[in-house]
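thread: overnight batch results

M.L. [08:02]
morning all. the overnight job finished for the chain we discussed friday. pasting input first so we're all looking at the same thing
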Amino acid sequence: MAEYILVINPGSTSTKVAVYDGEKELNTCSIDHPAEELKKFAEINDQLEFRKDAILEYLRSQNLQVTDLSAIAARGGVVGQIESGAYLVDDAFVQASLDSPAPHPANLAAVIAHEMIREAGADINAYIYDAVCGCGVPDPIFTYTGVPEIKKPFLTHVLNSRAVSIEQAKRDGVKLEDTTYIVCHLGGGVTSNLIKGGKVLEFVGDDEGGFSPERSGGVPCRELVKFCFRSGLSEKEVQKKLKGRGGLSAYLGVNDAREVERMAGEDAHAKIIYDAMILQLSKDIGSLAPVVCGRVDKIILTGGMAYSGYLTEEMTKRVGFIAPVSVIAGTYEMEALAKGIHRVINGEEQAHVL
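M.L. [08:03]
and the structure it wrote out:
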């Protein structure tokens, strides 16, 4: 009997959707949302009906209705400090998603799923899996920043980092709970995550470590303060400069690491920028090893940039002394969402309740 799972993963300018039968992908699609269409909405929450209609149209294109599904797997946004794994999408989770302190289309996934089920009168549940805030309650020692008014926010690439950790443990023939991995997610933004026993223990976030294709990473704080006061930019404009227009994009006008690598083969300036990024991201990985006194089983390089042989070879040279390096290139968000929720509906995992 089919166990259809609809996967919903909204991004800034698109909504990724997929249909799985159990853990087998039947179809996947990225629904693009042109900027001129999104400009109609003053706030991200205003996009709810627009995105829901697009998802329902996709489902119809697959000759499926909501009542044909066994569950909906939704991307989890920022709803507070929650554990990794699955959460049931109920009224409380929906409200927390709508009231999120970090507006992002990912917050809409749970709301859309909940409304689709309610409107169809379907006797199924929606769940999120490994939300970006799904690091649990951190040990207080990891939250201190040196400024009492500022605590480190625990938001990172939980979904893909845990997905490749699960895959690595399978490849090594060991239990996930017995492993300690450092997972470097190499995307438009980069985070390095210390995952011990399958849970995020500590990490270097995309606003505190090395720069990446679109983000500045950590910037010397005194220079940043001076820049903010003399730039004449608003807070929103500075945030955009640091996250979205920083890193490789700021230096070279290109946010595609493949293009930057091509440029680096022809231009000395592009090469030193690219190599500087690789060096900084390698330092991020190294900074996590002392947290577990160097007892790291494996370093995993994942995300889109991990397809680059040059980048992964250079990073391996720099961090291979810590632990063996494994490359699992690409992102596995849709697969991780589907498989996680399939484990829940089969009773292999228990879903949390907010």
